[in-house]
Structure formats: C-alpha cells, structure tokens
C-alpha cells in the first residue's frame, strides 16, 4: 500500500468513526504512520483529501458489492434481488460503521459545496445503476404498473442510508437487515415475483 493509500485508508476509518470536522490532519497522519509533509505532498488540504477519500470509499464499496453479485445473471429482476441480498449479507459481516457518502452528505452539505456535489453525483450514480434494472424488470414483469423505477431506486438508497443510521445508533445490524428484507418484499408485491 502506498503512502497515499495509507492516508486515505486512515482518513476513511477515522472519519467514519468521528466525522470529517472532528478528524484532524494530525489524527490522520498518526493513524497512517506518515508525517504532515507526506500528507501535504499528496493533498492540498484536508478538504482535497476528503474529496478523494469520498470517491475512493464509494469505489471500494461498489467493488465489494459487485464481487458479491453473480456475473452471468441476465434477468433484471433477479439482478435487483441480488443487489438487495448482497446488501443484506454485508449487514451480517461486522459492525456497521456507516457510509462515508451518507456521513459527508449530512455533515458537510451546507458548508462544503464541492463535497456536496460529489455526494450528489455518487448517490445519483447508485440510483441510476439500480434504476436501469428496475426499469427493465418493469417492462418485463409489470408493464402496466404505475410505479416509477427511479423512485424505487431512490427508495432503496433511502432505505440503506436510513437503516444504516438507525443500526449504527442502536449498535444492531438487524435493523438494517430487516429494512432491506422489507424493501425486497415490497418489490415482490410490485413485480408479482
């Protein structure tokens, strides 16, 4: 792992625990085992590091989810269920520390417009990705239904983010697991499968 990767990894862990504002550059350097000079060699300032930590976190999360999905699934509804099931499996692995995108959205949207735009872009990408399969599944299984696939995709994201907050506050992953199962059951009523 390069020094830059060490810094990003340490920053992500600390910021998931303490938030962006409460995490200092000194904290990050100490956790990464690097000097401040190394930090500022790679990043102009803490916000620049935060922007990169955010996009790196989102990419790693997406990669982990993709690895959990079967590669050859062609049915769009099964792909959606696979995404939901993969998210459920992730809740069983360890304590949920949260989502950096969600945390930064809550903590920094009013004060750091560049970070807010990154959060918006990352959330929009997640919504669009699931919407594609939800839309194809609607065409195939429920063409006359009145629901909107984009809204279902937004609902999935809201379910994940909201239940993650409650799970973190309660220190109980089963809250998130139950919420995701309810989302899955709701999809079954809409699609009839």
From TrEMBL:
Which InterPro entries does the UniProt entry name for this protein? DNA-bd_HTH_TetR-type_CS (IPR023772), Homeodomain-like_sf (IPR009057), HTH_TetR (IPR001647), Tet_transcr_reg_TetR-rel_C_sf (IPR036271), YxaF_TetR_C (IPR054156)
Would the keyword Transcription regulation turn up in this protein's UniProt record? yes
Q: Which residues bind DNA?
A: 24-43
Instruction: Enumerate the spans annotated as HTH tetR-type domain.
Output: 1-61
Keywords tagged on the record = DNA-binding, Transcription, Transcription regulation
Domain of life of the native organism: Bacteria
Q: Does the keyword Transcription apply?
A: yes
**PROSITE patterns recorded:** HTH_TETR_1, HTH_TETR_2
Pfam entry (one): TetR_N
Which GO molecular function, any one, fits this protein according to its record? DNA binding
Protein name per UniProt: TetR/AcrR family transcriptional regulator
The organism that produces this protein has a lineage beginning with: Bacteria, Pseudomonadati, Nitrospinota/Tectimicrobiota group, Nitrospinota, Nitrospinia
């Amino acid at each position: 792992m390069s020094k830059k990767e060490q810094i990003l990894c340490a920053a992500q862990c600390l910021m998931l625990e303490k938030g962006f504002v409460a995490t200092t550059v000194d904290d990050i350097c100490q956790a990464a085992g690097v000097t401040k000079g190394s930090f500022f060699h790679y990043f102009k300032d803490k916000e620049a590091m935060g922007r990169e930590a955010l996009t790196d976190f989102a990419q790693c999360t997406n990669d982990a989810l993709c690895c959990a999905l079967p590669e050859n699934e062609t049915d769009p509804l099964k792909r959606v269920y696979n995404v939901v099931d993969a998210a459920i499996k992730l809740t069983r692995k360890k304590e949920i520390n949260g989502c950096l995108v969600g945390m930064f959205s809550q903590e920094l949207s009013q004060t750091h417009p560049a970070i807010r735009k990154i959060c918006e872009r990352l959330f929009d990408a997640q919504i669009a990705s699931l919407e594609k399969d939800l839309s194809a599944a609607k065409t195939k299984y429920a063409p006359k239904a009145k629901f909107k696939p984009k809204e279902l995709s937004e609902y999935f994201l809201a379910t994940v983010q909201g239940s993650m907050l409650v799970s973190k506050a309660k220190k109980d992953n089963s809250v998130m697991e139950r919420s995701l199962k309810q989302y899955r059951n709701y999809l079954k009523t809409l699609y009839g499968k």
